[in-house]
Amino acid sequence: MINWDFYHEFDWADDKYLPTRGEGDTMASQTVTAIAKLVHKWYNDGDVFDNTHGMTGWCNDLSSYANWLYTNIPCADFYLRRIKDCKTYEQYAQLLADLTSAIETEEYLSELAKHEKVGSIYKCDGPYKFKVVDDEDDEDDEDRCVY
Question: Is residue 6 part of a domain?
Fold first, then answer.
C-alpha cells in the first residue's frame, strides 16, 4: 500500500523546484507545486481533486491543480482520468503515486524548468470538478474541514 513514505524519493524535486511561496516562475515549479498540493492534501486532509465520481473528498477544492496539470502537462491526464475508476483509498493513493513517478523525473522537470510559468495553478478550469456537499447529518464536519 502506498503511503507518505513513498514520496521521500521525490524530495530532490521539492528541494530543487518547490518554491517557498506561491507557484514559482517556471513550469517545473508549477508542476511540482501542483503535485505536492494534491499529495499533501490527500495524506493530511483526505481531499481529492474530483469528488463527482466514486471518491468523496472532504472539503478543500483541489480541482484547479489537476486542471492545470491536465491543460499543461501532456501525460498528466493519462493518470488523472483514473479518478473516475477510483473506489478505494488505495486506488486513489496509487493514482497519485503513478502521477508523481511519471512526471517528477529529473529529465522531464529540467525540460519544464526552461519554460516560464503558464497561467496559474490556483485558477484553472477544466474537466475536474469539486462539488460542495452539504451533509447536515454529518456531525464531524468541523473535524473534517480545514479552513
Answer: no
SS3 track for 16-54:
HHCCCCCCCCEHHHHHHHHHHHHHHHHHHHCCCCCCCCC
Evaluate if residue 49 carries a pLDDT over 70. Answer: yes
Using CA atoms, how far residue 3 sits from 108, 130, 133, in Å, is 24, 24, 27
| pLDDT digit string, tens, across residues 13-46 | 999 999 999 999 999 999 999 999 999 999 998 8
Structural domain harbouring 109: 25-133
Mean pLDDT of 3-13: 94
Residue 52 domain-assigned? yes
Domains in the chain: how many in total?
A: 1
